[in-house]
């Protein structure tokens, strides 16, 4: 799974309960609960994991994105790519294919996945804590309108249903004009050069703050 959305709100101790951000006094499930056991404590003191993500494009050159929110600050949401954590012993490619299947219902073979085409290290400011994720992005295409229409969220887990809101195909011009946050920043411009095919160059975006 991808996890809850990054926010720039005030931080509370990792795993802390307490009142909801709305001030209604109701206990909330913190992001530390949602993040799961695949997040481990790194040398920098932040919880950390490796992740694989998929830039999934259809025959109309639209990009599939997920919208999610922070369970501790649900009024803030953002768009991001399909993907999630790499399991122990799993390759990044295998993780990308698995996450694609789980989050969209789309089953692709290894040959349909190109890359990694991008890498980055993302710092997330969740409402309850800060964490870091090292990401590899792969490129894949669905070739028919039927394949694009078949995308579904039937395989989402209970945790994913708590933090993920919808799947949507985006024309890149519309995505570039979107006022809601999109991660990675400048995603439309990152994808445009890949539409005609990947030239084999892995673009390293370095450290980015998703806040």
TrEMBL record:
Region entry Disordered, spans? 1-29
What is the originating organism of this protein? Cellulomonas pakistanensis
Q: Which residues cross the membrane?
A: none
Q: Which GO terms describe its molecular function?
A: hydrolase activity
This protein is called what?
Nudix hydrolase domain-containing protein
PANTHER family on file = GDP-MANNOSE MANNOSYL HYDROLASE (PTHR43046)
**CDD domains this protein is in?**
NUDIX_Hydrolase
Q: Which UniProt key words apply to this protein?
A: Hydrolase, Magnesium
- Pfam families attached to this UniProt entry: NUDIX
What Gene3D superfamilies does the annotation carry? Answer: Nucleoside Triphosphate Pyrophosphohydrolase
């Amino acid at each position: 799974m991808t996890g809850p959305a990054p926010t720039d709100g005030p931080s509370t101790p990792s795993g802390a309960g307490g009142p909801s951000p709305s001030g209604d006094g109701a206990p909330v499930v913190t992001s530390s609960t949602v993040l799961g056991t695949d997040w481990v404590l790194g040398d920098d003191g932040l919880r950390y994991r490796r992740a694989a993500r998929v830039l999934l494009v259809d025959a109309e050159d639209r990009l599939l994105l997920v919208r999610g929110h922070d369970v501790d600050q649900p009024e803030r949401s953002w768009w991001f790519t399909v993907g999630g954590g790499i399991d122990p012993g799993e390759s990044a490619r295998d993780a990308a294919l698995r996450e694609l299947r789980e989050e969209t219902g789309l089953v692709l073979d290894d040959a349909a996945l190109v890359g990694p085409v991008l890498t980055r290290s993302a710092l997330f400011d969740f409402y309850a804590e800060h964490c870091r994720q090292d990401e590899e992005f792969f490129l894949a295409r669905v070739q028919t309108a039927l394949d694009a229409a078949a995308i579904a969220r039937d395989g989402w887990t209970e945790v994913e249903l708590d933090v993920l809101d919808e799947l949507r195909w985006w024309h890149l011009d519309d995505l570039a004009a979107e006022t809601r946050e999109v991660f990675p920043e400048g995603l439309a411009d990152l994808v445009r050069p890949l539409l005609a095919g990947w030239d084999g160059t892995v673009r390293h975006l370095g450290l980015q703050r998703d806040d």
